[in-house]
Amino acid sequence: MPLHAITEVYGEQGLRDRFRLELERFPLQERARLERALELASDLHADDRRVREPYLNHLLRVAIRIMRNYGVHDVDVITAALLHDAVEDHPAELALIDCGTYAELTDAALAELARRFNPRVAELVRSVTNPEYHPDRDRNEQYRMHVERSLERDPWARVIKVSDFTDNGVGVVHTTLEKAYSSALKYRPLVPKLRELVGRPDTPLSPEAKHHILDQLDLAEERFAAILDT
Description:
mainly alpha; globular
């Protein structure tokens, strides 16, 4: 069953159950680490919503897609997928500090992830964490520039970002009309770059996974066009 369909029918609990099924293939120590990552994500995003659903649903879908559809069982990557928005959305709570600049809070939160898990997890999260936007420049343009730069240098971060993008892009039909329109404007220009990055030899995915992702990017582009070109 597609992940958004699981969400519609069974909600957060259905996604949690699906995540636990995927964990059965991991050794106990690795399973425990992924469960800790999910617990931390659950705590940090407990009060967050994505329009119609708990924010945790998005994080679960991103992680499950990486395991199930991409065939990736790298625990660091899956941990970072579960926590890919933690530093951006809740740096103070994660770092347990009250104040600081955006850069200071970000660095402190990433240091805390490195302490709780390892430096590689922190660097993966850093690669998919948006920088502070300049108020005088277009936010969507700054977002696209950041994504392109960070994914150029970090092939494993591409895996997290394409799952995140798929959830937002293909899943654009599962939100409100207003949110769908703003998401289509933000994400549509990224499709060609993501398609090119996925196809690179250094992107650490199987040919089957890459083919699946390219199909999903095509579907996302079709949905963006239906929203923006009508």
